Amino acid sequence: MQLFHGLDGAIHHASQLDRPILTHLNADTSWILSLPYPAEEPHPPGRNLFHILIDPWLQGPQSDLASWFSQQWHATASSVQTIAELNARLKGLEAVAAKPSATSPAEPDTRSHADSESVARSCFDMIVISHEFTDHCNRATLQEVSPNTPVFATEAAARLISSWQHFDHVYPIASFSKRDHVLRNTSASALPSWLEISRISTRRDALHFHSAILLTFNIRSAPRDEATEGIIYSPHGILADGLERLSLASPRIKVLALLHGLHNIKLSVKQLNLDDEVKTAGGLVSRFLKRKVWTIDEVLEDEKRRLEKSGAGSPIADIGDIHFKNLESGESLLLR
Question: Rounded distance, CA 66 to CA 69, Å?
Fold first, then answer.
């Protein structure tokens, strides 16, 4: 993995290496996953990357139920403020990827004019929504996206988004197969053959609050029975046993990144494990929230003590090939 403080350098390197780029759009849990098109696959003119917009909430408040009950704002401004600005930036950076300089990338077009020709065609190839809550499924931000962009959402979120009658196509995300462990396309007509999406959940989590989105892709033109690459996105955390069956997946999955929060947030005595941005909060619920801020080192040390106390031993020393990164707003990670 290689960390960049913006999309510019990441896309320049990715264009040379044909590797995915993960970009954190804010301090909360909005992301862009940019995947190089496989060499033999057709792609739109002037495009080298397939851009997946994940849980976008760029500005303004978010409220569930009612503002008097719970309302939050970003305490840290998002790295881009509008979808038009993000789209224009992606188009400029696509030009960088198409014509990399021998020494340094060209200056990208980062115009944010909503009526500019540079934003007439959307750079977003699909949207992924992990939860129906408004910090993940934010109507104001989503309705800035072109209606012809396909949306893949969990069942409750898909119903909510469909009720807005904004997007032409909204697809519920299928569950990862427990029976035969085979990765399947949610909709063969809506996704390219080299990309698949599914949801991982556990029986102990009936409300799917602690679930995960699995995105797998074959961008290296490997045979279908060989390993595919993927990322796991779990903004609220997921029980470890929910991921165990991935080891039986067919084809085998090489996980490039696990997106997972570190903070523990409690409402009275109920643990929520919400997203990590320390937001500006209002409403009744904010008076009862208690947040424990963890660092990566503290999490590893706590897990080591827990395993040793249970007599299970500690596997922490055996994870030398796993790297831990904390992506700030606007930072990008090149996934190797």
Answer: 5
State how far the Cα of 29 lies from the Cα of 235, in Å rounded to an integer.
7
Q: Exposed/middle/buried for 117, CB within 10 Å: 0-12, 13-18, 19+?
A: exposed
**pLDDT at res. 47:** 87
DSSP state of 175: B
Amino acid at 224: R
- CA pair distance 211, 206, nearest whole angstrom: 10
Q: Which pair of structure tokens corresponds to residue 183?
A: 């990765």
Buried b (16+ CB within 10 A) or exposed e, 252-288: ebeebbebbbbbebeeeeeebbbbbbebeebbebeee
Q: How confident is the model over 4-14, as a mean pLDDT?
A: 64
Tokens in use for 144? 């800035």
**Higher-pLDDT residue of 309, 131:** 131
Distance between CA atoms of residues 207 and 184, nearest Å: 23
- As a three-state string, the secondary structure of 100-160 is CCCCCCCCCCCCCCCCCHHHCCCCEEEEEECCCCCCCCCHHHHCCCCCCCCEEECHHHHHH
Place of tokens 């993960």: 22
d(CA 299, CA 44): 43
Do the beta carbons of residue 222 and residue 38 sit within 8 Å? no
**Higher model confidence: residue 10 or residue 250?**
250
Tokens found for residue 55: 């849980």
- With tokens 């020494």, the residue in question is 103
Percent of residues, the chain, with pLDDT higher than 70: 62
- pLDDT higher than threshold 50 for residue 6: yes
Mean pLDDT of 118-140: 84
